[in-house]
Design a protein that fits this description.
The chain has 152 residues and is an alpha+beta fold. The protein has 2 helices and 9 strands. β8 (97-105), α1 (106-110) and β9 form a beta-alpha-beta unit. This is Detected protein of confused Function.
Length: 152
Amino acid sequence: MAKARAPKRPLESYTVKHINKTIKAGNCVLMRPADHSNPQYVARIERIDADARGGNVKVLARWYYRPEESIGGRRQFHGSKELFLSDHYDVQSADTIEGKCTVHSFKSYTKLEAVGNDDFFCRFEYNSRTVLSTLIALLFIASVRCLTIPMT
């Protein structure tokens, strides 16, 4: 028999105790990577939920990808602080949030007088499903071409 899920309740905001910052839906945050040698992940908080007791707080995160994390890779024209807003959503513990950050539009980023460590910009969206579907189709076409034996 399947274990019943504990009811959850949505939160308007939540204070992450270890950084003493309050987050709410729409905020961008820095998330702790599993491998500490990697840079922090950047995500936009879409929703905050707590269990019935309020002790287990989860966030629905929409991930930003760095250009080098995409299929095309980092190109010469990408900025060092550039991110792509992806269609990848994931539920994470609020305890993995390490800080807040700001993801600007390219236009507003170029007008900043000083760029801080927690400032990023986004001018492209990255659709991982389309990229994956396209990649699979290209691999299929390539494999069919390799299997085709020309008749002489």
